[in-house]
Amino acid sequence: MEYIVLVISAVLIKNILLAEYLGNCPFLGTSKRMDTAVGMGLAVIFVMTIATAVTYVVQHMVLVPLNLGYLQTIAFILVIAALVQFVEMFLRKFAPPLYVALGIFLPLITTNCAVLGTAILCIRRDMNFPEAVVFAIASASGFTLALILLAGIRERLEISNVPRALRGTAIGLIMAGLMSLAFFGFVGVDGSLKEFIQN
Amino acid sequence: MKLLRTFTKGLWEELPPFRLVLGLCPVLAVTKSAETGLGMGLAVIFVLTCSNVLVSCLRNVIPRKVRIASYIVIIASFVVMVELASQAFFYKIYESLGIFIPLIVVNCIILGRAEAFASRNGIIPSALDGLGIGLGFTMSLTVLGAIREILGAGTLFGTQVMWSSFRPFTFMVEAPGAFISLGVLLALMNAFSKTQQS
Q1: pTM (predicted TM-score)
Q2: How far apart are CA B197 and CA B188, in angstroms?
């Protein structure tokens, strides 16, 4: 049951984009059109889940036993970069349609701070392995949700009359701000849900 | 003269994150107050300058195919230095920046400068480019942090600056305020450079 609270909290309340400020470059970069937003979102769900699981194992099987905790940043980024490369090769060989759909987004994900950020957050919050995986899936779904919502808004903005100075990224940021304000409405839902489950 | 321009272009023409819209996550996350903005900026100046110098030194040694991975390792090493140093000497800043210190590794500005500038230029221009862009980034972060801190908490660098009956707009120090104030600043920059051109 705690997993439900964890998922709701990661998707709606502490949304990785709108409340935790992670992964904003692809958020603004790929939200101009709906199809790129969907592609990016799916690629992030895929990579973030695998990356969090693998970095979790690396941290607890390699870095902690060998007392190399200070190498966490370097180790994680290398693992993620290698993993993205590997996923790309694997998809090209075994799932060409998926590769065609996600291919161009995969290299971008290496420098997506949401992936590294989620991996580090799981370690810093002392989650156990299933919690970390569920947290990664939920965070990535929250990312996809916010990305698709923003893409919907920005497609509408294309045909409306926006002042020249605001066009492009500026209005995108303000829209993201308004969305983040709307998501603030979910604050406290996790607490009452916890109470509800306990009773 | 050319060297001077390499340095000063980061302060206005290519001022990050407004002209180079890259590396937005730390910009949004650490500008809750002017102090954290400044701390983040200084960390970025150090990492950017050092990684630019090292990438420039090694530019003829690194094979083209693995260059991005090599740049990431170079950047990550300097980030670890900053992380350990700030943990030892500036613990308060380290606490408030939290996860965003290790995330300097994936700040696109740093990788972007390594790829676009340091891998093609000598050591001195690369160092100046890193310093200039880093200084511009620090400036933007501090200004954005100051605006958000003044409106959102009524203080600047921790001292009260607004009148005593001022009711702070708390939303300015939360996530929505970060997005909206950055968007408005970006629009103002756009409007200003349009009038300058015409």
Answers
A1: 0.86
A2: 14
